[in-house]
Design a protein that fits this description.
mainly alpha, two-stranded antiparallel sheet
Length: 208
């Protein structure tokens, strides 16, 4: 062993001796395993729900549609139902997906205020589902407009595609704004907390 190798070995050995495992290491590993199992169960349930939804829609289409002259004729309300089901499916899938990856981002932003970060995630979830629900209720039709026919035509198809694209655009813009605003809020809350601590410390010094 050369002198350089010996010094490198001694330095690494000394550094390793000064490192001690975290006291909560086992708890964190266990929580990580539990979270992974929970995510796997959620994915399986989500896949089962999607499969059941697609099967139900396929059964409805097969029962209410017919092929005539080489064209698929479908009542207008069937496509309306399919589009609404797609919007609901997007809401149920995108919500947990965004929340899963947003937790770590919120934890980094709100390091000085972990409870605030958790509350922020919960509040954004509420806003997310309120926007989705309001959009579905605003755009759903209970009878065909005057420019639609009794069966699915190009106007209705364009409208339904615009519904899906519109909610994706709205959520994309709001999600982008949320990513940009969240660090500013985290910094603001951190400065507010530091200012409050200084005020409390100053009050304690004056009382003494």
């Amino acid at each position: 062993m050369t002198s350089l190798e010996r010094r490198l070995h001694d330095a690494l050995l000394t550094g390793a001796n000064t490192i001690h495992p975290a006291p909560d290491l086992f708890t964190r590993v266990r929580h990580g395993i539990d979270d992974d199992r929970r995510h796997r169960r959620q994915r399986r349930r989500g896949a089962a729900v999607v499969a059941a939804l697609l099967g139900s829609l396929a059964a409805v289409v097969a029962a209410t549609s017919e092929v005539r002259g080489g064209r698929l004729l479908m009542d207008w309300w069937v496509l309306e139902l399919i589009a609404t089901a797609i919007l609901v499916g997007l809401a149920l899938w995108l919500g947990p997906f965004i929340k899963r990856f947003g937790r770590s981002y919120a934890a980094d932003v709100f390091q000085a205020n972990p409870r605030t970060g958790k509350s922020y995630i919960v509040l954004t979830d509420i806003v997310y589902y309120l926007i989705f629900t309001a959009f579905i209720l605003f755009t759903v039709h209970f009878e065909p407009p005057v420019d639609w026919s009794a069966t699915v035509d190009a106007d209705q198809l364009q409208f339904e595609v615009s519904r899906v694209g519109g909610i994706l655009l709205i959520l994309g813009v709001l999600h982008g704004l949320n990513i940009l605003i969240m660090p500013l809020l985290g910094r603001l809350f951190s400065l507010n907390r530091q200012f409050q601590r200084r005020l409390d410390a100053g009050s304690g010094d004056r009382d003494q």
